[in-house]
Predict the structure of Polyprenyl synthetase family protein.
Amino acid sequence: MATDTDIPFEAALLARAEQVETRLRALLDSRPLSGEIVRPERLVSAMRHGVLNGGKRLRPFLVLESAALLAPGHDETPALTVAAALECIHCYSLIHDDLPSMDDDDLRRGQPTVHRAFDEATAILAGDALLTLAFDTLADDAIDLPSDRRAALVLALARAAGAGGMVGGQMLDIEAEKSAPDEAGIIRLQAMKTGALIRFACEAGAILTGASTGDRERLAEFGSAIGLAFQLADDLLDLTADAGTMGKATGKDAAAGKGTLVALHGQVWARKQLNGLVEQAHALLEPYGEQASMLKAAAAFIANRNN
Amino acid sequence: MATDTDIPFEAALLARAEQVETRLRALLDSRPLSGEIVRPERLVSAMRHGVLNGGKRLRPFLVLESAALLAPGHDETPALTVAAALECIHCYSLIHDDLPSMDDDDLRRGQPTVHRAFDEATAILAGDALLTLAFDTLADDAIDLPSDRRAALVLALARAAGAGGMVGGQMLDIEAEKSAPDEAGIIRLQAMKTGALIRFACEAGAILTGASTGDRERLAEFGSAIGLAFQLADDLLDLTADAGTMGKATGKDAAAGKGTLVALHGQVWARKQLNGLVEQAHALLEPYGEQASMLKAAAAFIANRNN
């Protein structure tokens, strides 16, 4: 439930989303790249449709605030670019996830999904292009980071997004429809499918600011805790919210017979678990004192969001 | 047509393919990655099906031979890893290209395509995972290259594979079925769809060995010339070869009404053009003398191949 204390946080999230939107628009401009290379109009339109859709930009927010925590007052331009690259990965995964052979969704945030607005082939290619653009963006020295940090960002994002991370989690999710996983299986699936990118978002702030290994690990652990919370909150919302609030079909997981921890242990357990995860996330940020208040608010927001 | 002088080249190509195969098998092993992260079996099986299929490994060959030209006697381990990463990109593009909403092919090298052997969702995810794995591999310091070279390889490959390269070319190819492009349009489409990765293959040898900008540009230009030759030879084969020789359906481009330069100017012109491109490619390698004989043979092979 939203309370008065959430309002400054939500305003901060909105302000960050606007910054990220500007950076994403620049990345998805159809101007020529280097030399005479021009990206096909239709492909760029489909990429823009899949990305510039009014998302909350939660993962970019986490990149920006993790970086601000570890290097207060730093020039935020590189962090914004990393945040935008991560959002390209998130959006590509939604485009492919919505395809007829995957979740077969017609709507995303109340708008036609990319394969409905364009066609299936274009949606597949737009996803492929966004995935590739994310690594292009991180590796480019236009980002103004030393090459070791650029390479580390590419590696960490590829690990989070690949077969041992998000894409692997999507595979497990599809298999879960045929054969319900046990509790350990559900936890593994969720840590990969949604947890890995959220963990990366927090870790990225440490990598791009050149923080110590200790800070990097602490931020990554914080990311893991709020990633778990994100998924638990999502499962609760799937049971309780209606389609109008969510901007997408709800109750689908239950209908598909997918096991969730909420289905396994009930809503009371899930809310208690959520509180525990927020406490754990907050405890990880104790060493940073007042500086960490924005990330702490993010943890609470993720656990209590209603859409 | 194969002649006696091609035999040493074909033996070299086969020997290189075996080396690349070994490196690819290691990358696609289903062992745990770092820590407890395990890639789902079904996903790894689909990735292996799409990659370990007896390909000629022409692009990896070009990486290895370009590197050998510029740094004779160097440790080839990093070059082999770069070559394998590039092949992951090539194979992902074939998996997605074969999908029902794209080219809708049932066979690839005489074997069922990934979506036929598994299913469509698994094929989409296997492609996504291979695309991501390529950048994971290039960015990893296990490759034993300085971080500036790793970042440069990621950037150059992402440019070659993304919306301004291969994926953009695939988009133009789909659009060409509805509205036939003019000669400039065909050249642009082909330079992007098949040319960009072949150009990268040659350029990568220069990047990974830390060669001079002059060498890098020369190798990239060589790659562009043989990329054009590759596509012209492909268009000729599509007209003249039968499905048994090619291991896939032939005559499809003509049936789909796709404009090719061969359709526009005829086979005699095309063969003349091919010879001109081989001459141009050979001229670019003149400064390297005898050392370049393997890459020169590759240019001739590409122009004269019969499958």
In short: The first strand of chain B starts at residue 107 and ends at 108. The two ends of chain B are 10 Å apart (CA to CA). Chain B touches chain A through 56 residues (CB under 8 Å). The beta strands of chain B are 107-108, 111-112.
